């Protein structure tokens, strides 16, 4: 049986936030008498993550995803509740715990700006107490997986964003961590770079059985990497479960565009009892429930003269978008 | 603490930061020229003060030059290690990159205090030592083992006090985010350290001994060089340095509990 590597129970986090009124008067008031209020950004959440799982954290900006990730890796103290990651209390930041985890942030970098990435890799290797030979072996292996070679010897400031992100990944993985926390890892990358990064993460997970916790606003990251998602809405978990179950629930029908041989066939199909979305000449779009797709398509193909047919998945961004603005999903 | 690992990491710090700095040759050259001009300017200023009177606060010009030499060495150390590293704390906290430091299996205070090095500060340290040797000659100071030990102890204590003061102020960034001004104020106070403590009024002497112990930083080591120091002063400097160093450590650990990391 696969063991839980992350256990979170009744976790809450509050921050003291100061607010400022607009204008000069507001600025002066803010300077002399700053009004702060406690804001609960995470409210009583509980979940478990199994070893080797890839879990996506979904939520609108400010929902609390990054705060959860930062509490999981021990950067910030929880206000209430308990967290256990790989058997450790993260906020104590014990050496063995830190050797087990890594945090990668798409918008922040740890590489030394003026030097080639290879210098940062060897620096990290010495921090993680790896000898030169072992470090060299790991750099070679990871650079092959990430498909970077010459870039290792070019100053970071001269690398493209995609090359930089790959180097950031290598720097963050040189100690072969078991748990990866990824905060928007594909932010700002072009489509090819995003795809390569996803491919790498899939491969890394498969080869090392590492657990990956990921936040991203690019739905493709979530759909191609995560079987399970945790949706966060205003600091609370609105959904925790399989991604495909969520998609089915949120979008129970598929749209099918059917190109008939003649307009007469299209008219016959229109009157055959299917829910029609629209019809233009010999092209007709119908809506079919997910659970009756196969039987409905059989009926259509057997009874009508069909030239072509397209099954359209609902745009995933729109479907997931609903999760980000609603609170509860009873699935 | 694994000393071998820390030495290995520090070697890497030295290597990477020297390599980074050497990418900008012109900048190093400007820094070197600035260090020479700054020292010449300071000696010129000191000589102006001594033009009308042979003594200030009971110190001759040749003796006061020792203070200037120690100040130059300490300023060199500040520019080599404290300035590039401790001002970086502010940047780490504002931009949230302290996250990377805190998640490394290494002492975070060690990392942020020693990661960078500014090689042009070395020249200032060398100039300071040259001036010090010159002062030893003109003041006809007799070098012996006990003298060298005491000098080393007092200068080390001065470095600890100076580091702790910088570190205290930089750490407050965790709450106040921007503390550049406080660091500038500290640098201005450090200029005071170029003059003998006894040249100030009684109230200022108390202020620079108790509240901001600038006096300890340069005057006491200089007194050791001139054989003017008394035992209790050296002991006091050791106690002050130990208290400052321990508290800077405690303060850092305490402050980290309030670190909320920058939003992404």
Give me the secondary-structure topology.
The complex is a heterodimer of chains A (331) and B (264).
Chain A: E1 4-19, H1 23-32, E2 35-50, E3 54-58, H2 65-72, E4 80-85, H3 95-98, E5 101-105, H4 117-127, H5 132-146, H6 161-173, E6 179-183, H7 191-208, E7 211-215, H8 219-225, E8 228-233, E9 236-242, H9 243-250, E10 253-260, H10 263-270, E11 275-280, E12 283-289, H11 293-303, E13 306-312, H12 316-325
Parallel strand pairs in A: 3-7, 3-8, 5-6, 6-7
Antiparallel strand pairs in A: 1-2, 1-4, 8-9, 10-12, 10-13, 11-12
Helix pairs in contact in A: 4-5, 4-6, 5-6
Chain B: H1 3-21, H2 25-49, E1 55-56, E2 59-60, H3 61-95, H4 98-102, H5 108-114, H6 120-138, H7 145-171, H8 173-176, H9 180-192, H10 202-211, H11 214-226, H12 231-256
Antiparallel strand pairs in B: 1-2
Helix pairs in contact in B: 2-3, 2-6, 3-6, 3-7, 3-11, 7-9, 7-11, 7-12
Structure, explained:
- The complex is a heterodimer of chains A (331) and B (264).
- The longest helix of chain A has 18 residues, at 191-208.
- In chain A, the strands form three sheets. In chain A, strands 5-6-7-3-8-9 form a six-stranded mixed β-sheet, sandwiched between helices. In chain A, strands 11-12-10-13 form a four-stranded antiparallel β-sheet.
- Helices cover 37% and strands 30% of the residues of chain A.
- Chain A is α/β, with parallel strands linked by helices and 331 residues long.
- Chain A has helices at 23-32, 65-72, 95-98, 117-127, 132-146, 161-173, 191-208, 219-225, 243-250, 263-270, 293-303, 316-325, and strands at residues 4-19, 35-50, 54-58, 80-85, 101-105, 179-183, 211-215, 228-233, 236-242, 253-260, 275-280, 283-289, 306-312.
- The mean pLDDT of chain A is 87.
- Chain B is an all-alpha fold and 264 residues long.
- Chain B has helices at 3-21, 25-49, 61-95, 98-102, 108-114, 120-138, 145-171, 173-176, 180-192, 202-211, 214-226, 231-256, and strands at 55-56, 59-60.
- In chain B, strands 1-2 form a two-stranded antiparallel sheet.
- At the A-B interface, helix 3, strand 5 and helix 4 of A face helix 1 and helix 4 of B.
């Amino acid at each position: 049986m696969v063991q839980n590597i992350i256990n979170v129970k009744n976790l809450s986090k509050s921050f003291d936030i100061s607010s400022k009124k607009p204008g000069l008067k507001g600025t002066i008031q803010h300077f002399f008498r700053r009004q702060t209020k406690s804001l609960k950004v995470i409210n009583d959440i509980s979940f478990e993550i199994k070893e080797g799982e890839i879990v996506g954290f979904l939520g609108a900006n400010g929902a609390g995803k990054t705060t959860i990730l930062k509490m999981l890796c021990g950067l910030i103290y929880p206000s209430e509740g308990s967290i256990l990651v790989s058997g450790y209390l993260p906020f104590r930041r014990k050496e063995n715990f830190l050797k087990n985890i890594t945090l990668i942030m798409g918008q922040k970098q740890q590489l030394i700006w003026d030097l080639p990435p290879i210098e940062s890799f060897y620096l990290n290797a010495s921090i993680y107490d790896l000898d030169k030979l072992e470090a060299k072996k790991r750099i070679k292996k990871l650079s092959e997986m990430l498909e970077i070679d010459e870039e290792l010897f070019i100053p970071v400031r001269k690398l493209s964003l995609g090359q930089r992100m790959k180097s950031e990944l290598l720097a963050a993985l040189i100690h072969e961590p078991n748990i990866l926390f990824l905060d928007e890892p594909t932010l700002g990358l072009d489509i090819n770079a995003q795809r390569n990064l996803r491919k790498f993460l899939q491969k890394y997970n498969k080869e090392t059985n590492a657990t990956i916790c990921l936040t991203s606003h690019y739905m493709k990251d979530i759909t191609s990497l995560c079987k399970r998602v945790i949706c966060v809405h205003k600091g609370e978990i609105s959904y925790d479960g399989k991604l495909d179950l969520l998609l089915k629930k949120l979008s129970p029908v598929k749209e099918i565009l059917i190109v008939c041989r003649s307009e007469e066939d299209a008219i016959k199909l229109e009157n055959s009892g299917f829910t029609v979305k629209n019809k233009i000449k010999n092209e007709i779009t119908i809506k079919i429930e997910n659970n009756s797709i196969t039987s409905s398509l059989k009926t259509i193909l057997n009874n009508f003269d069909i030239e072509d047919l397209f099954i359209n998945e609902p745009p995933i961004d729109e479907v997931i978008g609903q999760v980000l603005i609603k609170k509860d999903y009873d699935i | 603490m694994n000393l071998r690992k820390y030495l290995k990491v520090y070697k890497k710090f030295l290597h990477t930061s020297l390599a980074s700095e050497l990418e900008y040759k012109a900048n190093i050259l400007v820094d070197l020229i600035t260090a020479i001009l700054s020292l010449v300017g300071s000696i010129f200023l000191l000589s102006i003060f001594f033009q009308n009177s042979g003594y200030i606060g009971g110190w001759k010009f040749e003796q006061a030059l020792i203070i200037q030499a120690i100040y130059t060495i300490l300023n060199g150390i500040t520019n080599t290690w404290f300035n590039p590293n401790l001002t970086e704390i502010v940047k780490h906290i504002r931009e949230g990159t302290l996250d990377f430091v805190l998640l490394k299996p290494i002492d975070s205070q060690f990392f942020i205090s020693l990661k960078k090095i500014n090689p042009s500060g070395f020249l200032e340290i060398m100039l300071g030592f040259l001036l010090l040797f010159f002062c030893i000659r003109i003041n006809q100071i007799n070098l012996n083992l006990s003298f060298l030990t005491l000098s080393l102890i007092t200068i080390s204590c001065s470095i600890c006090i100076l580091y702790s003061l910088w570190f205290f102020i930089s750490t407050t960034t965790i709450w106040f985010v921007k503390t550049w001004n406080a660091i500038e104020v500290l640098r201005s106070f450090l200029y005071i350290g170029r003059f003998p403590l006894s040249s100030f009024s009684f109230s200022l002497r108390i202020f620079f001994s108790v509240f901001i112990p600038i006096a300890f930083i340069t005057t006491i080591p200089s007194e050791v060089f001139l054989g003017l120091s008394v035992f209790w002063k050296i002991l006091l400097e050791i106690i002050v340095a130990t208290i400052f160093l321990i508290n800077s450590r405690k303060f850092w650990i305490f402050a980290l509990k309030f670190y909320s990391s920058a939003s992404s």
